[in-house]
Amino acid sequence: MSNTAIEEQVLQREIERLESEGYDVFVQPRAPLVPEFLGDYTPDAVATGNGKKIVLEVARPLGSEKLKEIAARFAKQREWELKVLLVAPTSSGKTVPVQSRQAIDGAIEEIERLQQMNALRAAFLLAWATFEAEGRASIAGRFDRPQTPGRLVQVLSQEGLLAPAEADRMRTLSEQRNQLVHGDLGTEVRSEDLLWLVSILRKMAAAGQISAPLRFNDALA
Question: Is a pLDDT exceeding 50 seen at residue 31?
Answer without folding.
Answer: yes
